[in-house]
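User: Is it possible to get a 3D structure for a protein together with its bound compound? The compound here is NAP. I've pasted both below.
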Amino acid sequence: MNLRDLGVHRVVAPTGALPQAAERLDPSLPIGENEVLIDVETLNIDSASFHQILGEVGRDEDAVARRIQQIVAERGKMQNPVTGSGGMLLGRVAEVGSAWSGTLRPGDRVATLVSLTLTPLAIRRVVRVRLDADQVDIEGHAVLWPSAPMVRMPDDLDERLALAVLDVCGAPAQVARLVRPGAKVVVLGTGKSGLLCLAEARRQLGSTGRLVALDRSEAPLRALADAGLCDAWAVVDATNPTATAQTVNELLGGLADVVINTVNVERSEMSAILGCRDGGTVYFFNMATSFARAALGAEGVGRDATLIIGNGYAPGHAELALDLVRTVPFVRDAFGRAAGAA
Ligand code: NAP
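Assistant: Yes, that's possible. Here is the predicted structure of the complex:
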């Protein structure tokens, strides 16, 4: 194992840490021989992180820009110190190290498939903050190494749309693994990742089983039902576990086999766990999930469910998510709106 391929040489502190856990990374130039330099154009900030920053500084573009610049200046990466989460970026390959083993070439437009929480990043200027898309256009650079996958941007999809999809592409890939025909499935949170999960669950279930969508707003849920992307829906507050579990019981006539948590707020662990049967599976894609609250909470209610942490990586995850966008018109339209695409 070559530690430089894991980016360990870019860690400033603490000594011995991997880049994701590091307090601070060194984004300085020149790049090493195994690295790639990206001219960054857009940061797609993780929803939990963007939401937290808006709560802290208000819906003010200049204040959000200042906060993001401050975090990146302090940490050498865009890792929100409160949520711990990052996002991903869109840019153009500026330079490829002499020992780089991949196929990328200078000029290629790419999106990173690893989190901004481990990507060395320097911002020269914030060009624009897109409050409704969780995106920030910047001038700056990022450095990637061999263990940090990137994807060439698809040329048949709007770039902002593709970026928003790629940010959450790990979620539907896990749904493809977890949902089997006939299953009772609940998707808690029907934003970007929740929508992809519903679309993939529908693909796995076909007309079998039962697919339930839960969120806090009625209009998007109605639209999902009209599009055939759920069999039943309800407005819930995911931070209220007893009411949410009761709703699941009513809609399913029992508990779920699989619950996917894609809300972007804290304290939603028990809503997902209480709605899942013994022997079922709860998948926490939500980055505001507390491991301790989930594990101890499940123990506390005696629920023997398998709890899965939302690993954002699975082989083929980008292709699977982009395929959902290409083949399910409702998904494409919704992401187009969310990303502010034409
Ligand atoms: P999103 O588009 O903002 O969707 C979140 C949804 O949850 C929204 O519809 C939101 O409603 C709803 N919601 C918020 N609070 C709620 C509550 N109390 N009760 C019910 N619904 C509620 O977010 P996303 O981009 O899909 O991301 C979802 C989560 O995935 C975030 O926590 C993000 O950090 C995480 N994530 C994980 C990975 C990974 O690799 N594991 C990668 C990317 C993102 P409103 O729109 O009304 O607020």
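The mean pLDDT is 95. The first strand starts at residue 11 and ends at 13.
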